[in-house]
Amino acid sequence: MDFVGIEKLSLVDYDEKVACTLFMEGCNFRCPFCHNSQLVNKENNTPIPWEEIKVFLKRRVGVMDAVVITGGEPTLMPDLEEKIRDIKSFGYEVKLDTNGTNPTLIKKLVSEGLIDYIAMDIKSSPNTYNVVAGLSVNMAKIKETVEFLLENHIDYEFRTTLINEFHSLETIKELGKFIKGAKKYRLQKFTDSDTCIQRGLHPVSKENALQMKDVLLTYINDVELRSY
Question: Considering the entire predicted model, what is its pTM?
Fold first, then answer.
């Protein structure tokens, strides 16, 4: 598995950081609302040689603060640790976007100081996870990662993309119980596009999203809407 895309400048993917974003091909979920269907389904992507990426990172030292690693699901990459070590050698902070299905690797990366921030996607409440992830999910792995992050070993956020067809107030209430005590939680607005795995899904309205936020504040102190 390789990096197949790079956003050379981002001011929104890592709060208060000037970053670039690396996109990895491949994922072990099939979330219907995913915007990166070409990455998930490995469709006509051209791998970017790692040496080429390193040359770019070296040239941007002093200009950028951080590198965001996303996908797809980055923890599927066999040599992810080695590549992060290369990134850290240039002095960058590293943010990892993940679905949380590889707690063993996440713990290792954190324990060795190789990542600085984790954004974990929480797809839905535990009893509806399979529907929103698009396949059968090993919830024990998800729970292990959630519990590890709740212990505050690293700066992190949980986030959920709100889909009208999947998320109700009751769903969100159960989700809040699942990640009770989380440091930071963001409810993200969905936008349908041609690159989604499934077309025709709808965003949760701002009015309903605010109601969901109020429900979540019972369990989590820092809850905000994103892109609403």
Answer: 0.95
Which of 34, 38, 43 has the alpha carbon at shortest distance from 135?
34
Give the per-residue pLDDT at 192.
Answer: 92
User: 70 forms bridges with which residues in the sheet?
Assistant: 23
Six-digit token string for 218: 């019972």
Give exposure, 186-220, as e/b (b: 16+ Cβ within 10 Å). Answer: bbbebeeeeebbeeebebbeeebbeebbebbeebb
Cβ contact 47:39 at 8 Å: no
Burial status of residue 149 (CB atoms within 10 A of its CB: 0-12, 13-18, 19 or more): buried
Say if residues 186 and 159 touch (Cβ distance below 8 Å): yes
Q: What is the pLDDT of residues 53-103, one digit of tens each?
A: 999 999 999 999 999 999 889 999 999 999 999 999 999 999 999 999 999
Pair of tokens at residue 186: 């963001």
In this structure, the strands spanning 3-10 and 19-24 are: antiparallel
Which stretches of the chain drop beneath a pLDDT of 70?
none
Judged by DSSP in three states, 35 sits in: coil
25 SS3 class: coil
Strand partners, 87: none
Contact 220, 180 (CB under 8 A): yes
Task: Give the chain's length.
Answer: 228
